[in-house]
Structures are given as structure tokens and as C-alpha cells.
Amino acid sequence: MPRTPAGPELDRLISLLAKLPGLGPRSAKRAALHLLKKRDGLMAPLAVALKEAAEKVTACSICGNWDSSDPCQICADEDRETGVICVVQEVADLWALERSGAHKGKYHVLGGVISPLDGVGADDLNIASLAQRASAGGVSEIVLALSATVDGQTTAHYLVERLEGLTVDITRLSHGVPVGGELDYLDEGTLAAAMKSRHKA
Amino acid sequence: MQFTDEGIVLSAQPHGENHAVVNIFTPSAGRVAALVHGGQGKTRQPVIQPGNTVSATWKGRTEDSLGHFSLELVEPRAATLMQDSLALTGLTAATSLLSLCLPERQSLPQLYDATKVLFELMEDSDVWPVIMVKWELGLLSAVGYGLILDRCVASGATLEDGADLTFVSPRSGGAVTYEAGMPYKDRLLPLPPFLIARGEPQVGDMLAGFALTGHFLEERILFPADRQLPDARQRLLTRLQQKYRG
């Protein structure tokens, strides 16, 4: 990336910003210039927020969610159902489920899915602690909310096998027609999955 | 340069933030890797799941360049098998093996046809594991490491002569008769009779068949390239053992 004629500090800021998702070198320069313009209103608070987040936010020792407290707010919330654990791939998936308000229980973040090509095996994921939680008692259901991809479903099948023998119901999300989706516009894979998982009306 | 062909998606690796490099096995051009624009997006992701059959148009400046694919879904195999644990493991094992074993841009139409047949049978769990053993033999043969299972490498006796072929030499990949092989049986691999069209395959035969093909896939193709058999194949064998041996 060509250096700016403004000194190493700005170069460093731009090169770091350019590493963020969605930003390239040009948009990183724009962001850096914008931050400099809003030095007091945005740049200084952002620097403080980044520092605080880097120091305080850690993975919850129970579920793997990011939070500044350990256990996280969800694990510490006594109003939530403790008997149902929803297993998700990443924290972003947990946030999506929280937005929907569809799940009132606890979560478990795997930190990825089994992917041989990317060199991710079962031992690289947060699976051992899930097995511990499931066998500790008080858990009646584990919901596997993993991606409808080959890797996601391979992981789901692996978890079913791993948790076999425990007195816990293991369920998984349905695959099929999205709300507002017209059949004509759906891809063939989704339609095939929807047809496979049809149920009695 | 441009070509259009049907193909089976073998793998998709993220490239940058939005795109993916996708490996596709086509009958006319063999295994081809190319960029799929927007391959990490929600409209392309369902198409580039391993095992899916697609119509692929490859375009590139030269024959050697990475180029890019335009893809249309033909058969959503991954979605069809996604809820069947054993079949999904088999599908992943087969696509991973093809990814690891096939050279780039080498036309292998017979292996492509055999792969399609294997995938089409994957909804019948009593049939496809046996077919997959034969498919792995076909894979070895297609890449130039076929086994010689119709005559004894020690005595020269052939199947046509009624030779009792019982073992396979782990070095030569040739069959060995019971008589010639017995003194060395601990060092030889068992030859399942169904691989030489003798008898119906039993569960033990199927597992012995996977052990046989696994040995040669490792020894002849993967080890020299500093690779290993894919984890999915090992998971498949574990599941088959659990299913049939309890």
C-alpha cells in the first residue's frame, strides 16, 4: 500500500483499519481521515472503547460467548431456562437468535464447525465443555442451531454421536422455506431440504 | 478461453471477504479450481456445497490461469443428504478424496460417471458403502495406480483358470493365491471376494475392502504428496463399524 505523506502514525492507523472486514486501503484512508476530523467526538472515545474492550471482554468460561463479565450476562441470568442449551457456531449466531427472541434458554458457542479442508477438527472446537454441561444434570434439551452447510451438518451429526447416551433430547433447527419466501425464487437445495423435512399439516 | 460442462463441487475455500476458490470435478476437464465471485454470499453458498452437481462455465485469459466460474445448480445433492448422517459422511469422504487425489485438468470421464452413480445411490445405505469400495478402486485405477486383482503375482495363476485369489500384496498391489500367500498371510492384505465378482459382499468384506483401498490410496497417492487420508473417511469407517458391528 502506498504510504501517505503524513508520517508513520497515520500509516499504521490506515494499515490496521484496512485489516478490518469490509475495509480496503482506500476506505481505510477515508475512515482514518474521518476519525482525524472528529478527533474529540469519535476518535478519542473509539480509542478508549477499543482499549477497554481489549482489556475486559473475554470468552465466557461456561458458554464461550464474548462478554466483559465471566460468566456472561446470559449464563448469569437466572430468569432464563437452564434446561435448554442452544448450540451455535459463532457469537454472531447467538446475537441473531437473541434478536429473534425465539430462544429463552442458555447458549453454547462452538467457535466454528468441523472443516477438514480448513484443518479444523472436533478437538479445535468448544465441544468437550458442551459434553460436560450436558452430563452435569439439569439439562433436558440441546438444540443444534448450526449452519445448513455440509460442514455445519457434519458437526451436528458429530455432536449427536458425541452426546449419545445422555438423558438429553437433542434437536436441530428445521431446514426449509423462509418466511416471506416464494417457492419460485428459492434455490433447489432449500426446496429439496424443505421437501425432505415436511411434516403433517 | 472458455468451456462449459457439468461438474461436481469438491470443495470451496474462502478467498478474500466475499469470494471463494471452488474445486469442481468435470468429465471433460477433470478437477478444475477457479474463482467464484460472491462465493461467500448467501445466494452462492447453497450452490457451492460439496457434492452438488452444477453446470459450470469457466472463463480465463489463458488455459493455465485460475479463471472464474459461473455456476448454476443442477442437483442439490448436499441438501438431499444433509439429514442422513452416514450418507453425508460418505459424501464428504468421497469429495475430500477427489480433492486430494485428483491431478488438476486431467480428463477422467469414467471416474466422473462412477462418482455420479455413487452419489445417486447414497440414499440407500445398504448399497452405497459396497459401491464406494469399488469406487475407490476405480479412483486408484483412474490416477494410474490400479490394483491387479485378476491374477496371482506370485504364481501367475489367473481368475479365468480358477485361481483361489485370497490376498493382495501391499507392495505390488497384485493379488496372491491362498496357497502362495499363506506363509506370508500376516504381511498380506485380505482380498474381499466381492471385488473379484465372487460372492455377495458381507459386512466384514466391505470393511476389508476399505482397508485395502485405504492402504493404497495412502501409500501410492497421498504419502508421496505429504498428505493423509481425509478425516471424513476415517469417520465413515467408524460409523460403518458402529452400524454393522454394534
TrEMBL record, chain A:
Instruction: Provide the function of this protein.
Output: May play a role in DNA repair. It seems to be involved in an RecBC-independent recombinational process of DNA repair. It may act with RecF and RecO.
Q: Which organism is it from?
A: Aquisalinus luteolus
Q: Which gene encodes it?
A: recR
Listed A to Z, the keywords are:
DNA damage, DNA recombination, DNA repair, Metal-binding, Zinc, Zinc-finger
**A GO MF label:** DNA binding
Put simply, this protein is called Recombination protein RecR
| ZnF (C4-type) intervals | 60-75
The Toprim domain sits at 83-178
Q: Name one GO biological process term.
A: DNA recombination
Q: Does the keyword Zinc-finger apply?
A: yes
Family listed = Belongs to the RecR family.
InterPro entries in the record, alphabetically?
A: DNA_Rcmb_RecR, Rcmb_RecR, Rcmb_RecR_Znf, TOPRIM_dom, TOPRIM_RecR
Q: Write down a Pfam family by its short name.
A: RecR_C
TrEMBL record, chain B:
Q: Does the keyword DNA damage apply?
A: yes
Q: Where are the transmembrane segments?
A: none
The record's section on InterPro entries has: ARFGAP/RecO (IPR037278), DNA_rep/recomb_RecO_N (IPR022572), NA-bd_OB-fold (IPR012340), RecO (IPR003717), RecO_C (IPR042242)
**Source species, domain of life:** Bacteria
Keywords for the protein's UniProt record, in alphabetical order? DNA damage, DNA recombination, DNA repair
Query: GO cellular-component terms in the record?
Result: bacterial nucleoid
Name any Gene Ontology BP term. Answer: DNA recombination
Q: Where is the DNA replication/recombination mediator RecO N-terminal domain?
A: 1-75
Asked whether the UniProt record includes DNA repair among its keywords, one would answer yes
Report the family membership: Belongs to the RecO family.
The free-text function statement in the UniProt record for this protein reads: Involved in DNA repair and RecF pathway recombination.
Q: Which PANTHER family would you find in this protein's record?
A: DNA REPAIR PROTEIN RECO (PTHR33991)
Protein's name in the database: DNA repair protein RecO
The record lists the organism as Aquisalinus luteolus
Which gene underlies this protein? recO
